[in-house]
Specification:
Elements (H helix, E strand, L loop, with lengths): L2 H17 L10 E5 L20 E6 L5 E5 L5 E5 L3 E3 L1
Antiparallel strand pairs: 1-2, 1-5, 2-3, 3-4
Length: 87
Amino acid sequence: MTLKACKKEEKMDREFQKKFKFEGSINVLTRMMVDPAATEKRGGAKNLPLRPGEILDVIEFTNEEQILCRNSQRRYGYVPQAVMLPL
């Protein structure tokens, strides 16, 4: 990874921590897949856009309804737990 790409990732991680008031290091708990039968959803202010069959990194299980996730483009947001399937 180049120095420029590394700095960009660090900046995105800092922005995530500020936006979601997340303290500590960002650790991936597990990976889960968006249900292939789910409809594609656009992201909102703090919601992650979803594509059926997409694999997401789980950062935190926030409550019984939502999970804080990161996609392959290093975007962060909440995802409804109802559309997630374990790998």
